[in-house]
Design goal:
alpha/beta; eight-stranded parallel barrel; globular
Length: 655
């Protein structure tokens, strides 16, 4: 069991370290979270899987203006034409389904940080170009003079916190009714431009964590501003959090802190990689792909390493990554850019990371600076593509359309056919001369479960971030996963929590695997979590942080241990009749049927009807799993009915 006081001290110590930098992060009170129909909202990974590939309206709304371009005219101050619906329609027709809208706000603020209403209306208009096209839209703050300063300090932080809070509070209010197709990105490439200890384009190291904490606190202020608006849509909206300069460096990304109760978040990364192919113009550059830089960096290996790191970090953080900017500048090397695009997008697709192409409408440069990222010809009305760059875009679309390359390595199936197969094995006793014997062999996968609840005395934890106590703990004992049954919820409300464990007794640091949950119509929720990191842990705690009043009813440990039994009889299950409770279709009704239901509900991608796991529930099993004669759909209550049936407390089906 954990020493709770030690756990809380460590949490407090970590919080105090951050608070020493600047003012403490504020969290939205639990009672400010509105309940919502959980089924109508997607998880962050579901959103990013749909986003897949996007396009940036670069150097337009993010242009900062000049003496001749003020007010609404700042949009054209960097020589790009005004953004039109025709441009976005053209981008959608090419195959992009995400639009990133870089936006600079500071030239449009008054002395009290109020956004000019005409500018807000113009931004809203461009957002609608994407939303009306059934696309995802990413809206951010970009090129802000209060974000990118010479050197971070407490004074610059105070200014930045006030502005980021004011801007996002107003933006959240403006778009409070927009669904999850609208994504907010807190900042763009936050960095220091004149700190000798911390490189402007490095990973943020060099000042003992001050820079990382500075950005993390601004990210938290952004989260609080959006969630604090209060609408259901803003509670469920995906928020993108950058690290130092949105660096692709693994250290910078690992030092992004996800605020407690942040809700749906993704990590924001920019990756013009490999740099000496995509942008560099010095003597070490090599604009041939495949190839290597003058430093000896192999381009293909570098991309493999990068995406492997991103996959690892997503697993560590429990949050997806979005590459908000990527591109290869035009060095008159179209064939190499095509080869690069295919390799880059293949690796990104396998990692499950959506990529958003940077387009600044600069097609060629007489004196290359590595900034020729022009794809859509906006100078010609934005309804056509630059000839050579279009070939690169088409190569990207070819990878996205290639069904042999699986998104995040997972099979996504829309239809399935279930076939019951009986294998007949012929055994010949050669030494005795006996006749061959036909034996019917049925392979059964047995899932062992351990229950940590007493029906008459439930292990209950009150989920209250301000006063946490009585966490249920258990010994993982090498289990593969854990199923947590949560109750006492308002129908449709969402919440979150974590598995907290130490790798060995007395370890200095705790490890936290975060999870979220959504209550069904009965106020119950089921979560399945992998215990890969905790199989040999000394002890594991279930902690619920949100919403207040939730309780843990039961914890099941799942050991996936295949056991093969041989029998001379077979049980035939009628495909036309319902066998109430026989969710795994093995002819008997026991706790394993309850487990497969809980697994299917908690992780449908793996254990649902179209799940990737070989032991997923079948269509027939799903039909059997609905134990209520009224056929009201499969819920966690059906798992409970089966448990009650095995204890001879009820009969099936439930009337």
């Amino acid at each position: 069991m954990f020493d709770l006081s030690k756990t809380l001290k460590r949490i407090v110590s970590a919080s105090a370290a951050v608070a020493c930098l600047v003012s403490a992060v504020k969290f939205t009170p639990a009672n400010d979270f509105s309940s919502a129909d959980a089924a109508s909202y997607k998880t962050p990974f579901e959103i990013t899987q749909e986003m897949k590939i996007g396009w940036n309206v670069g150097n337009s709304l993010d242009a900062t203006g000049d003496t001749w371009h003020t007010g609404l005219n700042t949009e054209t101050s960097w020589s790009n034409p005004k953004t039109t619906k025709a441009m976005i329609d053209t981008v959608k027709a090419k195959g992009f389904n995400t639009i990133r809208i870089p936006t600079t706000w500071y030239p449009h603020l008054d002395g009290n940080n109020n956004i000019d209403s005409e500018w807000m209306a113009r931004v809203h208009e461009v957002v609608d170009y994407a939303i009306d096209n059934d696309m995802y839209a990413i809206l951010n703050v970009h090129h802000e003079n209060w974000v990118n300063v010479s050197q971070f300090n407490d004074s610059t932080y105070a200014t930045a916190e006030a502005k980021i809070t004011a801007i996002w509070s107003q933006v959240a209010e403006e778009f409070k009714d927009y669904d999850q197709h609208l994504i907010f990105e807190g900042m763009n490439e936050p960095r220091q431009t004149g700190n000798s200890a911390v490189s402007e384009w490095g990973n943020g190291s060099g000042d003992n964590g001050y820079t990382w904490n500075y950005i993390n606190n601004l990210n938290a202020a952004f989260v609080n501003a959006v969630r604090g608006q209060g609408s259901e849509q803003n509670q469920q909206r995906l928020l993108m959090l950058p690290g130092y300069c949105a660096s692709s460096d693994a250290t910078a990304i690992r030092n992004i802190a996800i605020p407690d109760n942040a809700g749906n978040v993704a990590l924001s990364v920019h990756a013009y990689l490999p740099y000496y192919f995509t942008m560099a113009t010095d003597s070490y550059a090599n604009h041939n792909f495949p190839g290597q830089s003058g430093w000896g960096e192999n381009y293909e290996s570098a991309l493999t390493t990068f995406f492997n790191n991103m996959t690892t970090i997503m697993n560590e953080k429990g949050a997806p990554i979005i590459i908000g900017e990527f591109s290869a500048s035009n060095f008159d090397n179209t064939d190499s850019r095509i080869a690069w695009a295919k390799d880059y997008l293949t690796k990104a697709k396998k990692a499950g990371i959506p990529c958003v192409l940077w387009d600044n409408n600069v097609y060629t440069e007489s004196n290359p600076t590595g900034e020729a990222h022009g794809y859509l010809n906006r100078n010609a009305g934005g309804t056509s593509w630059y000839t050579e760059s279009e070939k690169v875009v088409d190569a990207m679309m070819g990878i996205l359309a290639d069904e042999s390359i699986l998104w995040a390595g997972k099979v996504t199936t829309t239809t399935t056919t279930t076939t019951t197969t009986t294998t007949t094995t012929t055994t010949t006793a050669a030494t005795t001369g006996n006749d061959p014997t036909n034996t019917t062999t049925t392979t059964v996968t047995t899932v062992t479960t351990t229950t940590y609840n007493d029906p008459d005395n439930k292990t209950t934890v009150k989920a209250d971030i301000f006063a946490v106590s009585d966490y249920p703990a258990f010994d993982p004992n090498g289990a593969d996963s854990v199923i947590i049954n949560i109750s006492s919820l308002t129908a449709g409300v969402s919440g979150n929590g974590g598995l907290v464990y130490e790798t060995y007794e007395g370890a200095d640091d705790w490890i936290v695997d975060r999870f979220s949950f959504n209550a069904d119509s009965s106020g119950n929720a089921t979560v399945e979590l992998s215990l890969d990191n905790a199989k040999n842990a000394a002890s594991v705690q279930v902690q619920l942080w949100w919403p207040e009043g939730a309780s843990v009813d039961s914890i099941y440990l799942i050991y996936n241990t295949p056991v093969t039994t041989t029998t001379t009889t077979t049980t035939t299950i009628s495909e036309s009749n319902i066998v109430y409770g026989d969710a795994n279709c093995n002819g008997t009704i026991d706790v394993s049927d309850s487990v497969i239901i809980l697994q299917a509900l908690a992780n449908p991608d793996k254990y649902g009807v179209n799940g990737s796991d070989e032991n997923h529930i079948t269509e027939k099993g799903y039909e059997n799993a609905d134990c209520n004669r009224s056929r009201d759909g499969v819920t966690s209550m059906d798992a409970l009915y089966i448990q009650q049936y095995t204890l001879k407390m009820i009969t099936l089906p439930v009337e």
